[in-house]
Amino acid sequence: MGLNDTPGANRVHIGFFGRRNAGKSSLVNAVTGQDLVIVSEIKGTTTDPVSKSMELLPLGPVLIIDTPGIDDEGSLGDLRVRKAKQVLNKTDVAVLVVDAVLGKAPVDDELIEIFTAKKIPYIVAFNKSDLRAETETETEDTISVSTVTGFNIGPLKERIARLAKSEEVTLRIVSDLIRPGDFVVLVTPIDSAAPKGRLILPQQQTVRDILEAGAISVVAREFELKEALEGLGKKPALVITDSQAFEKVFADTAPDIPLTSFSILFARYKGFLEPAVRGVKTLDRIAAGDKILVCEGCTHHRQCDDIGTVKLPRWIRQYTKVDPEFVFTSGGDFPADLNPYRLIVHCGACMLNSREMHYRQECAADQGVPFTNYGVAIAFMKGILKRSLEPFPAILAELED
Fold first, then answer.
1. Under CATH, which number does the domain 175-265 receive?
2. Which of 41, 74, 222, 362 is 20 to 30 A (C-alpha) from 85?
3. Distance between CA 276 and CA 344 in Å, rounded?
4. How far apart are CA 361 and CA 271, in angstroms?
5. 121-150: average pLDDT
6. CA–CA distance, 245 with 64 (Å, rounded to integer)
7. pLDDT tens digits, one per residue of 44-97
8. Beta strand pairing status for 122-127 and 93-99?
9. How far apart are CA 219 and CA 240, in angstroms?
10. Do 372 and 279 form a contact (C-beta atoms < 8 A)?
11. CA-based angle 150:154:157, to the nearest 5?
């Protein structure tokens, strides 16, 4: 996978924030070396967050996000400010752009307080420094720049890269569970919901992680699994299945072969497997009329038997023997008020970065709403969650408490 093919969820998210006319868009263009966003002297030119995946040296693959002015006014302005603040939930590094002539305003200090509260590393860029006789005294978290003269654009990029590196955490999907030379069997159903001509993103990323570990991936459909296991010649180190095929794969996989799902692996990869295992027990206490929020991290075209909106609600009704009310969200939508919901069931979050998933899970925890995901819920309802968690002894203990 080349840098241009790196999934957005695996890119460092760099957000540019500040007041209208501070020069955020000009600075984005200067930092990227491209005319990514429209620049104008008219206040409020950027009306919605603008994102661009690219390679930013010396950092590598990043997602650059330009945001509306944090001081926008009126009812429409309030919506734009809300959109800008939502970007903070997935920002790995924040750049606060301040007009060097006007200096910082209270709203800039408020942003810094938010960065600090959310533990987002940040740098304050005093733009338009060419219009001042003296530049700001630089500190650890400030720098003077000019998009007109190019002053300090290179050093700013280097400072951003250092902040991103300081936040870098080495995450693994599966490679820490296997050794070089191991066989790993991936069960990937090809049905009406599968994309034409390719594997879905979690499957692609898992194959790549297996290869990087020096192990061997064997890919089969659910009805080919038995034959694939018999033909391997040795016991695989792990079988990973699409959650929709969990029941059949469980039946066809010997008890001494470790078994889990892509969705469970991705819950661990994104850092919320433990709360997902705790939260799934709520399914035993669902009552008729309880609201269940089902969240998709992407905005794919829904099929007639879509897992999130059709299969999962059907399985939950069958398991609970009651009729809850289901509410669905997709993409970047996530309600601020979660109190109406008895349970949140999230997808595997392959399209969302770890910071955004942490934010969503923390929102749920703060409001006392249990949080789980598709794979954990399906395995729980099929009675095979314990088996699926055996590769993760510490998490398995959470289930047994």
1. 3.40.50.11420
2. 41
3. 9
4. 10
5. 88
6. 37
7. 444 567 888 888 777 778 889 988 888 877 666 677 777 777 888 889 999 999
8. parallel
9. 10
10. yes
11. 125
Q: 269-385 sits in which CATH class?
A: alpha beta
Tokens of 32: 């990227």
Q: What's the chain look like in SS3?
A: CCHHHCCHHHCEEEEEEECCCCCHHHHHHHHHCCCCCCCCCCCCCCCCCEEEEEEECCCEEEEEEECCCCCCCHHHHHHHHHHHHHHHHHCCEEEEEEECCCCCCHHHHHHHHHHHHCCCCEEEEEECHHHCCCCCCCCCCEEECCCCCCCCHHHHHHHHHHHHHHHCCCCCCCHHHCCCCCEEEEECCCCCCCCCCCCCHHHHHHHHHHHHCCCEEEEECHHHHHHHHHHCCCCCCEEEECHHHHHHHHHHCCCCCCEEEHHHHHHHHCCCHHHHHHHHHHHHHCCCCCEEEEEECCCCCCCCCCHHHHHHHHHHHHHHCCCCEEEEEECCCCCCCCCCEEEEEECCCCCCCHHHHHHHHHHHHHCCCCEEEHHHHHHHHCCCHHHHCCCCHHHHHHHHC
- Domains 3-167 and 269-385 equal at CATH topology level: yes
Of 228, 186, 226, 187, the C-alpha closest to 208 is 186
- Between the alpha carbon of residue 91 and those of residues 85, 94, 111, 115, the distances in Å are 10, 6, 13, 9
Kindly report, residue by residue over 1-13, the tens digit of the pLDDT: 444 456 666 688 9
Domain ranges of the chain: 3-167, 175-265, 269-385
Looking at the domain covering 3-167, what would its CATH class be? alpha beta
